[in-house]
Design a protein that fits this description.
The structure is a single chain. The protein is an alpha/beta fold. The chain folds into two domains: 235 residues, Thiolase/Chalcone synthase (Peroxisomal Thiolase, Chain A, domain 1, 3-Layer(aba) Sandwich); 149 residues, 3-Layer(aba) Sandwich (Peroxisomal Thiolase, Chain A, domain 1). It contains twelve helices and 15 strands. The strands form three sheets. Strands 1, 2, 5, 6, 7, 8, 9, 10, 11, 14 and 15 form an eleven-stranded mixed β-sheet that branches. It is globular, with a radius of gyration of 20 Å. The two termini are 28 Å apart.
Length: 406
């Protein structure tokens, strides 16, 4: 496989994020680098430990108009979009029609799963005649992205990517390719996911939930993960478009790799064949070698088989040098945010490059996986970061980003 010649450079010019540890980049960054964890007893769902945001009022970000019809997950996505649009000066609030070159690519695993389940349950128990037609728009998986487009007047391409736990990372690459093809000028790209009763039931039935209530990525005593939620979006645009607006990007999207293990939809392929291939592709398409990577933002979330798979893949690619590369496993603090996880990790990778330090892995004690984790921030020296998003349904994705250079 030869490196892809990327004639058009794709830059990150803004960010929007809301997660269990904080809303907005300043709060999110401060919490992560302080070692704060969002994993706690849920105040919304009895007897559950989640990394959830709790009850929140969307009006400070979204105002009053049209908010009532938006479900929880869509509100999270709309808030992240509003943050990124405001930061980049691309808000369409005062525009009559909105920009036809401004769109959104959203990754999600379940969309508004609570809305879907509630709508179906009423139809089954009370009968179709008693189902509210006002609830129907929230029952399709692309509803959050569509509703966000309506709310923020995003008239450009609007697509939803569903690739399991790797959805958010896939969405970023999909958006980058659209921009390279000249099919848009600016695209919001990332992911969203909500936590609800249905999430809890699914995690428990599949045996994913940590009995101890504490995800311990790469640790010998890891016993599972906890569900998390949030929304994370980057504003992506071409170098040419950014230059025309007098904007200098913060980061550059370089190489993406993807591979499917094609062996199970309910378990990780411990051999790590697909994960290894995804990392190697990302490096090759970036035109760099394993020695150029300054830090790794890991996908590991406390699953014994999933963490073992990632550790094996990393060891194959980086060899003995793996023990020298600073690694962060953010899901220890954020939980498994499913479709939003890859995008959240990408944002953390970008922050790490800007700060030249990776945040601590919350609650980390020790590991025999040969991976350089720490309960304290770790300094890095370099301009390239690797972000992984590996899913228990066989989807594996990796992304390489770097600091923007003129």
């Amino acid at each position: 496989m030869t490196p892809r010649v990327a004639v058009t450079r794709i830059g990150v010019t803004g960010t929007g994020v809301i997660a269990s540890v904080g809303a907005g980049m300043a709060a999110f960054e401060e919490a992560l680098w302080s070692g704060v964890t969002g994993v706690k007893a849920s105040g919304r769902i009895a007897d559950q430990v989640f990394a959830d945001i709790g009850e929140f009022d969307p009006k400070p970000w979204l105002g009053n108009k049209g908010v009532r019809v938006l479900d929880r997950g869509t509100r999270l996505l709309c808030i992240a979009a509003q943050m990124a649009l405001t930061e980049t000066g691309l808000s369409q609030e005062n525009a009559e029609q909105g920009d036809a070159d401004l769109g959104m690519i959203c990754g999600t695993m379940f969309g508004g799963i609570h809305s879907i389940a509630s709508f179906d349950w009423i139809g089954i128990t009370d009968g179709p005649a008693l189902v509210s037609p006002m609830d129907f728009p929230n029952t399709v998986i692309n509803a959050p992205a569509g509703q966000a487009a309506i709310k923020h007047k995003l008239r450009g391409v609007n697509s939803t990517i569903c690739s399991g736990l790797a959805s958010g990372l896939y969405a970023i690459d999909y958006a980058a390719e659209f921009l390279r093809l000249g099919r848009a000028k600016y695209l919001l790209a990332g992911g969203m996911e909500e936590v609800c009763e249905e999430t809890a039931a699914g995690f428990q039935r599949l045996g994913l939930t940590s009995p101890s209530g504490a995800p311990k990525p790469f640790e010998a005593e890891c016993d599972g993960t906890v569900a998390g939620e949030g929304a994370a979006l980057w504003m992506l645009e071409t170098e040419e478009t950014a230059k025309s607006r007098g904007v200098t990007p913060l980061l550059e999207i370089l190489g993406f790799g993807a591979a499917h293990d094609a062996s199970s939809i309910q378990g990780y392929q411990v051999s790590g064949t697909g994960a290894t291939s995804a990392i190697q592709q990302a490096l090759q398409y970036s035109g760099i070698g394993a020695d150029d990577i300054a830090c790794i933002i890991a996908s590991a979330g406390g699953s014994r088989t999933g963490d073992e798979m990632e550790a094996r893949a990393l060891a194959r690619v980086f060899g003995a040098r793996l023990q020298e590369i600073p690694v962060c496993a953010p899901k220890a603090a954020l939980g498994e945010c499913m479709g939003a996880s890859g995008a959240l990790c990408a944002i953390i990778g970008g922050l790490a490059l800007q700060r030249q330090a990776v945040p601590p892995t919350a609650g980390f004690r020790s590991s025999d996986a040969g991976i350089k984790l720490s309960a304290e921030p770790q300094k890095i020296d370099g301009e390239y970061a690797l972000i992984n998003a590996f899913s228990c349904d066989g989807n594996n994705a990796s992304l390489v980003i770097r600091l923007w250079t003129k």
